[in-house]
Amino acid sequence: MRNIFTFLMMLFASISFSQTVGLSVFKAGFTSPVEITHPAGDPRLFVVQQGGAIRILNSDATINATNFLTLTTATISSGGERGLLGLAFHPNYATNGYFFVNYTNTAGNTVIARYKVSSDPNVADPASAAILLTIAQPESNHNGGTLRFGPDGYLYIGMGDGGGSGDPGNRAQNINDNLGKMLRLDVNSSTVQTPNYGIPSSNPYVGIAGNDEIWAVGLRNPWKFSFDRLTGDLWIADVGQGGPEEINKVSATTAGANYGWKCYEGNNVYTTGCAVSGTTYTFPVASYTRAGTGTCSSITGGYVYTGTTYPNFLGKYFFADYCSGKIGYTTDAGAITWSPVFTAFSFTSFGEDATGQLYVAGAANGTIYKLVDTSLGVNAFSKSALQLYPNPATSEVFIQSETMAFPASVNIFDISGKLLISQSLLSEKSSVNTGTLKSGIYMINVTDHSGADYTSKLTVK
Q1: Measuring CA to CA, which residue among 110, 113, 133, 112 is closest to residue 125?
Q2: Could you tell me where in the chain the CATH 2.120.10.30 domains are found?
Q3: What is the pLDDT of residue 50?
């Protein structure tokens, strides 16, 4: 067994074909999922539903029967772009139990609140709520919603421009308004400006004109941002007005960036005469328009892949387009590669687990998918007079050969090398039951009586 596992790992590491982004169903059964996240080092995934529930998705793809937290209509308003939108666990969650949420209250305003886990690690204490910020929203859209802790330990909050076409209140460029900004709070400060947070001294408007909470300006609707867990770089996906969808990347230490909206949309001038002489604007590292995605486009930001399962993915930033159903990836070189269309999934959020594997949420069908590299594997069967069919398989797969020495053994492994199925083959045409396997990519290995060894990729629908 150890030799087979080592062979598979060497095989994975040696593959140099161009990667193809595929999806493997991890778990269905959610309602309008809009966030997937986890506490540091925790194997569980926490799935945020826009209607107000946070549900725990375990590593074995089971969902806890009891919600981690439920915010009711007495607390939130949901629908459209409103609702429970963001969740971030304190870096020291394992010891202090704090987590933070971003939701729309019944008045339609953005609320950033802190909660604490109860004595049961699978259930939060609803009575522990402490509000940090309430930000008035003039419209029902462009709420942003993402919360992340940066490598500096501070809480970052992505705020949209408050809605309306073309930022009618010019809020994104107004340094006295928290809308259209990236905010940064010190939730550990012993010297607080409000009851529940302090201001990092390196925030760009501390001690001068401008709101102290602001970290960066000029955003339209940052629907998901993330930090590269290896480099600390900040990647922001900003939804466009009707032209470019943009991806911004800066060092985590870059204070006071101006991403340009509404003076610029992507690299294009949006409002003539808006740009201020002497101001440095940060332009996207990559962008795309709806011409390449269909009649509408709306970017959903993701993560840089840092895992070890898919070497071809390493260092690439993955994102999606909500309208077209495509997943893309890019690097700081700016070229975008698109997946095929995944029909009507309406991707609303990516997630990263403790090992760096990536997930994506389909709001339309309430399913969490795992990203896979479908170029993994070789087909040694066809070169050795063995037939494997159907591939992709559903409930069973047939292995046929007129030259193999029987009896033979067949083993099916998942992409981590875990043995899932093992059985004997006694005749030149045998079937293997694959009905117990989830949709995804597997490796199938056959060893005949003479010791000849054959390996192929197997896809299960």
Answers
A1: 113
A2: 19-373
A3: 98
Average pLDDT over residues 405-428: 84
With beta carbons less than 8 A apart as the criterion, state whether 356 and 308 touch: yes
CA 279 – CA 204 distance, rounded (Å): 14
Rounded Cα–Cα distance for residues 153 and 168 (Å):
34
**What mean pLDDT comes out for the span 15-37?**
80
d(CA 327, CA 176): 36
Half-sphere exposure of 213 (CA within 13 A, CB side): 24
For residues 259 and 383, give the distance between their C-alpha atoms in angstroms, rounded to a whole number: 54
Place of tokens 């460029």: 173
More confident residue, 16 or 427: 427
Asked whether 103 and 73 are in contact (CB, 8 A), the reply is no
The CATH architecture to which 382-460 belongs is Sandwich (2.60)
Query: Lowest-confidence range among 258-267, 350-359, 415-424?
Result: 415-424
Q: Look at the block and give the residue holding tokens 């302090």.
A: 198
Residue 3, pLDDT score: 46
Q: And the tokens for 354?
A: 């403790």
**Cis link prior to 39 (omega < 30° from 0)?**
no
Give the pLDDT of residue 327: 94
User: pLDDT > 90: what percent of the chain?
Assistant: 68
d(C-alpha 395, C-alpha 415), whole Å: 19
Amino acid identity of residue 455, one-letter, is T
Residue range(s) occupied by CATH 2.60.40.3080 in the chain: 382-460
User: With DSSP H G I counted as helix, E B as strand and the rest as coil, what are the percentages for the chain, rounded to 5?
Assistant: 5, 40, 55
How many C-beta neighbours within 10 Å does residue 107 have? Answer: 10
Domain 19-373 listed as CATH 2.130.10.10: no
Burial of 396 by CB count in 10 Å (0-12 exposed, 13-18 middle, 19+ buried)?
Answer: exposed
Q: Which residue has the higher pLDDT, 50 or 460?
A: 50
Measure CA of the first residue to CA of the last residue in the chain; give whole Å. 27
Paired with 76 in beta bridges are: 105
Amino acid 456: pLDDT? 79
The neighbouring-strand residues paired with 429 are 400
Cα–Cα nearest to 143, from 224, 29, 256 = 224
CB 114 within 8 A of CB 106: no
Q: Is the pTM of this model over 0.85?
A: no
| pLDDT band with cut points at 50, 70 and 90 for residue 348 | very high
